């Protein structure tokens, strides 16, 4: 099968895909930014190295410190934030943002601390470089907690709340769907939790392997997206074997398998009013399923309504709060469908692939393979475009207060107010920063 490079965009650089056709390229930037050198100069181990580089006494050159600063810079550039999620809280304003990254880590950040650190960082930069007209690079944020959620990239996060119970679900390239006790995590006084430490998932679900000729088993298919049904106590996972799986949160047992797509699944969402699950696939279709029996009730083909001649895949799906409208990010385009009439309301082509989207009341927020957050009306009119820090964005999250978080390439997270102003931009450290 012909390799579709655009369908993977930058995301393919972090994925170890099951089939040979999912090939990828990866690499590091060889540019060591001047700002990173200035930041490294504040570190004891790199101070003399940078002093020497700036024309000071070269006899005290710290080669190891300088090399470490370069490697850290490269590691940050090669890492990606695949998902951001606002933690539930009694406070009407967001307090904690949880991030899933390509190194398999899951980290929680205090937004108040990140906003304060960003302000201080920008102020220090302004004093230090009064004659330099370049923008400061994002500061490296300090998480409240960080733990190794998965072996390989972690792709999605969702909170499950039922009564007093609050579980943070994560999924990743290792084919596991894990549930973490959120309250225990908040109470933990351990900053870093690695595998084998005290922090254990309350649920650890693994996708089934498929039997192949001669009794061989296929690799465990990765999980790429999660959807939650709190009323029925179910969690859904979109997998790389072209299937979606439903699991019982109480028992940990598999309930239903949704089988019908012909290729890799990118996304999944739940429609509780009709007890349906909606999936989007590399095969270019969006399918609507009955959760009770696993049957496909409708197939939507966004490609028919887009002008692009390139092969299309469905990268993201979202439904509005009334569950009357369905938005599909399909390749380099976006379309909105009426769930009542099954008709396309509008479709629009974009020059960059759409990689995530969601509804904000009757408007749509979309991000993709460019550093821009776009807001559309339900009729397809572009209302605003805001420049974001990640050069390629894979996640957009929305808080009821109107605050928006965008995460993506370079381990960057951009937090914006409801009015579009940048509250803070920070860089997420990986597990390697705590070795």
UniProtKB/TrEMBL annotation:
Ranges occupied by WD repeats: 258-299
Top-level taxon of the source organism: Eukaryota
Biological process per Gene Ontology, one example term: mRNA export from nucleus
Keyword field contains RNA-binding: no
One cellular component (GO) term of this entry: transcription export complex
Assigned keywords, A-Z: WD repeat
Record's signal peptide: none
One Pfam family from the record: WD40
UniProt xrefs under Gene3D superfamilies: YVTN repeat-like/Quinoprotein amine dehydrogenase
Family: Belongs to the WD repeat THOC6 family.
Protein name as it appears in the record: THO complex subunit 6
Organism: Canna indica (Indian-shot)
